[in-house]
Amino acid sequence: MGMNQERLMQVILAPIVSEKSTMIAEKTQQVAFRVATDATKGEIKAAVELLFNVKVAGVSTVSVKGKVKRFGRTMGRRKDTKKAYVSLVPGQEFDLTATAAE
Questions:
Q1: How far does Cα 50 stand from its chain's mean position?
Q2: What is the CATH number of the domain that holds 21?
Q3: GO CC annotation: what is one (predicted)?
């Protein structure tokens, strides 16, 4: 793919570590990431393959609307975010701690 490597480094913001994402990871070989709101599925796939050296079977994305929160006496709104659930090819292992240590 002729995608800009610099852009791919900015696509994935953080892994989502929660009870729900951990349960999904164990059951279905999927990993959850918080990604840039303008990221496409193709970019997410390329970024995960580049950063973690794994083969990606598919990508599902979810746009999450920011909650309305109170800041002092004014009402404000949190930013909209985007989650990506990345499915791995069977037989692939995904270890966040090993790649973070490198």
A1: 14
A2: 3.30.70.330
A3: ribosome
